[in-house]
Write a structure and sequence with these properties.
The protein is built from four helices and no strands. It has helices spanning 4-20, 28-38, 54-57, 62-69. This is F-box domain-containing protein.
């Protein structure tokens, strides 16, 4: 039926997303650890913005934004320019 087409399309998009983006199927704890390893090693402090900053991870997708914002270790030693 015509009413079922949008629902079927959405279901297919969700199924394809798992194949297209397998990184999104990782547990949050593993993704958080990968993000922490993304930062420069201590004692270097990343800037709050830029390619090596935690805020860069916020722009990738909604899932990564949620994981990055819920990972305090990413934000505990950022360098602020005042």
């Amino acid at each position: 039926t015509p009413d079922a087409i949008p629902l079927e399309r959405e279901k297919l998009h969700q199924e394809l997303a798992h194949y297209k983006y397998p990184v999104l199927t990782l547990p949050t704890e593993i993704t958080s650890e990968i993000f922490i390893q993304f930062l420069p090693p201590y004692p270097a402090r990343p800037a709050i913005v830029g390619k090596r900053s935690p805020s860069f991870l916020l722009r990738i997708c909604r899932t990564w934004r949620n994981v990055a914002l819920s990972t305090p270790a990413l934000w505990c030693a950022v360098r602020l320019h005042i």
